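step 4 of 6: structure.
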Amino acid sequence: MSILVGNDTKLAVAGITGREGSFHTLNNRRYGTNVVGGVNPKKAGENVEGIPVFANWEDTVKESGANTAMIFVPPPFAAASALEAAQAGVELVVIITEGIPAHDELKLYNTIKRDHPNTRVVGPNCPGILSPGKANVGIIPASFFKPGNVGVVSRSGTLTYQIGNELAQAGFGNSSIVGIGGDPVPGSSFVDIIELFEKDDQTELIVLSGEIGGSAEEEAAEYIAANVSKPVVGYIAGFTAPEGKQMGHAGAIVSGSAGTAAAKAEALESKGVRVGRTPTQVAEIAIEILKG
Amino acid sequence: MDLLEYQGKQLFGRHGLAVSDGKAVTTVDDAVAAANEIGYPVVVKAQVLMGGRGKAGGVKLASNEEEAREHATNILGLDIKGHITRTLWIEHASDIATEYYASVLLDRSAKKPLVMFSTEGGVEIETVAEETPEKLIKENVDPLVGLTREQAIGIATKGGADADVIEGVADALVALYEVWIEEDASLAEINPLIVTPDRQVKALDAKVSLDGNAAFRHPDHADLGDKANLDPIEVQAAEQDVVYVKLDGNIGILGNGAGLVMSTLDVVAQHGGSPANFLDAGGGSDAEKVKQAVQIILSNENVKAVLFNIFGGITRCDEVANGLVAAFADLKPTVPFVVRLDGTNDVLGREILEKAALPNVYAEKTMDSAAAKVVELAKESR
């Protein structure tokens, strides 16, 4: 199978007419993703290389049957567009936009949870989701990945490529690669995605790639111990990050002892999750387990 | 962005939270004039983004003009852990009956705002949390409802606030929550929140951090923060849309994507090296941006060797290679560079570097081998 995106995906994109939005939408379509529409209130009726543009999410869903939304609009409008997609009944909303105010993310998360419990949000500030050989929704450079049995969930984009590439060079592919993003209030957490990988029959091993800040990795460790039968390999970036300094991602900030890389690695290891100290080591451990 | 105490208090005042009357000044004469106007006794407080101001001699009580002048003279220019005091906050000294603690922040785990309250104010709240956690009340707020007065009264009551000030504390909590929401703060903290002998509740200090991502809807925030004490290189980097953080080591690092750069720092450290900086050139870096990034890295004199670790997604490796070639032409660096290019257009990027035959540039195939190489080079050139 793979998770979240695949052969059933019908993708529509808010921000399709922008420079980045159109580039990546067309990239996704070239990969084989079924792209059915785009949203731009000012350009309704036009099209982007044959992809019809609608005025709003309600029209888009009605006319195109979209079940997956990708949000590429600028930060001030991104949360509103995501909510509108959920209101129109879209089941999966992937927010690529970087730089959304934390309070907007907070309100979006809680509103969707209360009013649209059947909609799942991935991101913001994430590279999207790739199910190799089936569909690519986002900005992950798909050519480095091939179909296989390793599920990857990560807070960082480029680090995901690094780990995925090491696995690919050793001959292993991926069921799905999910970037959940590094922002303070992500729509989906490690736990949410690991739950899906556990149920997915294509996935035989799960790689969790985390980083400093917050407690999502610690929560994942608890969840894995209680609920996951498949092997999980962990990685944490930021062992050498100084305290109190922000390292690019809004979420990657260390204050005090909680949230450090060491604490996260320890939390995972105490629950039996092997943690690689470098991306290379992660791939080595994964390969060792898969080869049995 | 972290605010100075007086900036935080001015925001508090705007949202109806009681603070002492005061004035921000930058000269001794203005400090004395402010003190005379406010009326003695006054407190002269250094405005720096650093804890431990009191211990460093940055907070003094003045009961007359002579003392005000003496303290202002001593504190202006005072170096508090590397932060130079350029602004003083002069406020009327408050009589204190009791000290509480209050804050609002984001609970990332619950994905809700968190209100904290304690009757153990005036000390480090981390110590309270660790030693007497029962004295620190933490309660999540539904962000779609907001902090109601009922909930605030409940928090003040559970926290053990004196019965006659429960309403006053609740008002302060509601106002603090309003500050947090309406100013797009990531943290709004009062320590201490004092009760005066005539039973007024007042914020004696203010610690506020604002979300830079929300700056577009707060044009009035543009002048806040302690700009004068920022590292000029970090300011330059921010203007060029590059995330740069200076560190203590001697190996310059450039990568794309925060996670990969953090990971690169870790791998370098594992090989026995010490990174001189974190630099995320971001997605889609073009040659010009790479050149500027090299300039930023080399502006740190401690740098003995530089590592480029690129995994191109949006970023194209040929652009990175062209940027490095341009940087060599312009800046003529004398330290060795180790370059690892993978991902989009990597073959092209490596060809460009090979053709340019830059002096002292070493190509490596993997992140691990590149880290090992740069550590070795940094040791040699020490």
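step 5 of 6: annotate
 - Chain A has a mean pLDDT of 92.
 - Residues 173 and 283 of chain A are 11 Å apart (CA to CA).
step 6 of 6: archive
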